[in-house]
# Entry
Amino acid sequence: MPDSSRLRRIAAAASALMLVAGSVHCDESDRAIGTSLGVGLLQFEFEEFDSQGRRLVKESGWLPGIEGRCKVTGQRATLSIDLAYYSGDVDYAGQTSAGVPVDSTTDADILDIALEAAYLLPLGLPPQVSQYPVGRRGLGPG
# Structure
């Protein structure tokens, strides 16, 4: 299992970030800031094979974690950052270099960071609806 003090520090830092981001005052009414904090489970699986396709190592298990998101939305632009951290012990089934089987556990830590930026281009084009009926197999018109 992951070091509980490490998880507490990460959870405290993520919570502080969410509180600070959520309390930021925007002068313009067309901006909004949203934050979220949650927990999750991640199915972890890793396999290693030799050149003949025989499996040498398999690691698998469930990793508990925390996830957070901060999103700033304006009239024409959106910026968001997602953070997720999963940590825990997973089952290890492998072998030594001499081929002796080994069953154990291994510590796994996964940090996932995603940044998304979007801007609505001022093209002045109205939204369009497809001219092709839904459910038709052909690509030609009606």
User: Anything to note?
Assistant: The two ends are 60 Å apart (CA to CA).
